[in-house]
Amino acid sequence: MADFPDGDVDRWRDELETKRAEKDEFFADHPQSPIPPEERDDFDGLDYFDPDPDYRVVATAEVHDDPEVVLMETTADREMRYLRTVTLEFDVEREDEDLEDGTFELAGYQLESPDEEPLFVPFRDKTTGQQSYRGGRYMELAPDRDLETGDEIVVDFNLAYTPFCAYSETFDCPLPPEENWLEITIPAGERFESN
Questions:
Q1: SS3 88
Q2: Which of 10, 110, 122, 153 sits a CA distance of 20 to 30 A from 74?
Q3: pLDDT tens digits for 58-70?
Q4: Which uninterrupted H or E stretch holds 21?
Q5: Number of domains, the chain
Q6: Could you tell me what percent of the chain has a pLDDT over 90?
Q7: Single pTM value for the model
Q8: Which domain holds residue 63?
């Protein structure tokens, strides 16, 4: 589990709940919401796993100075070009014997264009297609400076979100490459059971 600012888990939980409420409001009312307009009146908020600090982890970065191109398939059968710029290694520690723990890796990607883009971390886990969207989930990480190998960065799976294409076929979303398929259950972040 990652260290919390001021050691305050309650503050982290409150901030997470505030972000979730803001996102629900965006989905319900905003013109750019992925919820089709005719369905917005019936929308009563996204479905989330309960906040779980065990899935807010510290990852160690391995930065790739000469990033490889990764072609990600999309939900519209296209390919998008990303650069694998970093590999993040992290531990998941669970006291619950029914849930897995161990050391895992996820790759972080950026588009070939500007470096200012946040790190894009698409992934699948054992909830995919059951408790979460069949196309996987996303995280975006915005380090406060350029990462170097050995740096630590917080990865909070409680912020994992469902891509817009889950709600409307008008969106085309990249699918997590196989290297980001985790052999672990991550019951954190957004749920999506209408697969």
A1: strand
A2: 153
A3: 999 999 999 999 9
A4: helix 9-29
A5: 1
A6: 80
A7: 0.92
A8: 5-191
